[in-house]
Amino acid sequence: MSEFWTLEQRNGCNLAFVADPDFRLGQPGSVEDLIGNGFGTGADYLVVTKTQLSEEFCHLRNGILGGVTQKLVNYGLSVIFLGDFAPEITASDAFRDYVREANKGRRFLFLKSLDDLAERQRA
Asked: Quick one: three-class SS letters along 58-113?
């Protein structure tokens, strides 16, 4: 298994956490790295922490988040964006709406903690 990932099983889900300390989703080539390394993990979700997102990631006007999620959909990968997104949600109605809609599904989740994943599965 690649050093790019740390694999864990939690709440019945196989999770692949990005372990590369220099990885920043939203930088050029990063989504391709995520996709290329994501295949073969056997993970139900790839997990990217908020600290592993580029500074511009949550600003919808630049198209980074939409471009990333579209590529991940095309390759059939599911992702958990893990961290406290409250400041970004408060600062942007558009981002708040995006997170709310994403969390209605199962493909892309914005979760404050993995305890939130357990709650979703019980619901």
From this structure: CCHHHCHHHHHHHHHHHCCCCEEEECCCHHHHHHCHHHHHHHHHHCCCCCEEEECC
Sign of CA pseudo-dihedral 118, 73, 98, 46: positive
What are the tens digits of pLDDT across the range 78-95? 999 999 999 999 999 999
Sorted by where each starts, the structural domains of the chain and their CATH numbers stand as 5-122 (3.30.750)
Q: pLDDT per residue over 27-59, tens digit each?
A: 999 999 999 999 889 999 999 999 999 999 999
Q: Which residues contact 44 (CB under 8 A, 6 or more apart)?
A: 13, 14, 15, 78
Among 46, 69, 47, 45, which Cα is nearest to 57's? Answer: 69
**Helix or strand or coil: residue 46?**
strand
